[in-house]
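Regression test case RT-17, inverse folding.

Input:
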């Protein structure tokens, strides 16, 4: 009886604190519905049934590379950069190997993993040093790699992909920087395309913003159209495995609340375990009027990586 009274007192005290401060408690977003020890997040929505569903969408065999070429001129969030050195340079004057006169080249790369087309893992962005499932940075972040949430531990993502063309909905291309789309806009755009977003899907948005990467790189990085907080939660509630766009952060910049920093990243990654796919080249899919397709991603398995450069493939 005494334990029950103590519990009631604690609950009452917490309610008073929330009323006075308006603060968000840990219990509001963790533990995860997938379990307190879960490290995969929304990837738990993948299944053999989703692979079979996606495979049935393949009717023409046409493939689309969703990754952009990554190089030294790729716009990147500062101070990220790319550098390659070709070794064993085969300029036609060096020694050969063996009686068959074998020659060749090798390469050494130094780059940030979050450049070009990329997947953000669940260890990428958190809330007050806590990440997906409420795990504190001190418990898994090491200089030589993440001890939890590393990209190399993710299974292949093979599922149904959905492309939502927001340029058609808003009637402008590209959408202006700062243009926000939330549940209302997403539902309207999807309905106009006669497509539904389901549990286990990968959802991509076409905003036309990627064209700015070539024509005006500074403007491309200065802001972007994108997802709002309510829209992010809507997609998470639908069971999306990953959310991506043809922009470098997926979310609207300037943000809905300009005093915040990457709130949609927090909403998707930390609160819901939904992966983020940045700089997806959706142009050809949009030009062909494709709304659903088979999505295939076998991410590179760099041990301890927070994120990774990727080239997913859409098949229709």
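Golden output:
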């Amino acid at each position: 009886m005494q334990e029950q009274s103590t519990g009631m007192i604690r609950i009452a005290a917490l309610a008073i604190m929330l009323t006075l401060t308006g603060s968000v408690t840990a219990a509001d977003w963790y533990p995860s519905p997938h379990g307190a020890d879960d490290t995969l997040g929304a990837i738990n929505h993948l299944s053999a049934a989703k692979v079979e569903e996606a495979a049935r969408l393949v009717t023409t065999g046409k493939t689309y590379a969703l990754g952009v070429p990554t190089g030294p001129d790729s716009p990147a969030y500062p101070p990220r950069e790319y550098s390659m050195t070709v070794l064993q340079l085969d300029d036609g004057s060096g020694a050969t190997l063996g009686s068959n006169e074998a020659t060749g080249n090798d390469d050494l790369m130094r780059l940030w993993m979050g450049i070009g087309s990329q997947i953000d893992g669940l260890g990428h962005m958190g809330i007050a040093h806590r990440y997906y499932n409420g795990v504190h940075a001190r418990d898994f972040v090491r200089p030589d790699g993440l001890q939890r949430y590393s990209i190399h531990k993710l299974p292949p993502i093979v599922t149904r992909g959905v492309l939502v063309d927001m340029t058609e909905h808003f009637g402008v291309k590209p959408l202006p920087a700062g243009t926000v789309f939330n549940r209302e806009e997403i539902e309207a755009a999807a309905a106009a395309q006669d497509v539904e977003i389901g549990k286990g899907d990968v959802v991509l948005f076409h905003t036309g913003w990627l064209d700015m990467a070539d024509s005006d790189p500074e403007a491309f990085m200065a802001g972007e159209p994108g997802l709002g907080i309510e829209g992010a939660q809507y997609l998470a509630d639908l069971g999306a495995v990953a959310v991506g766009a043809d922009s470098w952060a997926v979310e609207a910049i300037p943000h809905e609340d300009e005093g915040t920093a990457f709130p949609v990243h927090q909403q998707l990654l930390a609160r819901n375990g939904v992966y983020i796919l940045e700089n997806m080249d959706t142009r050809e899919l949009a030009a062909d009027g494709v709304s659903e397709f088979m999505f295939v991603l076998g991410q590179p398995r760099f041990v301890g990586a927070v994120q990774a450069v990727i080239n997913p493939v859409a098949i229709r």
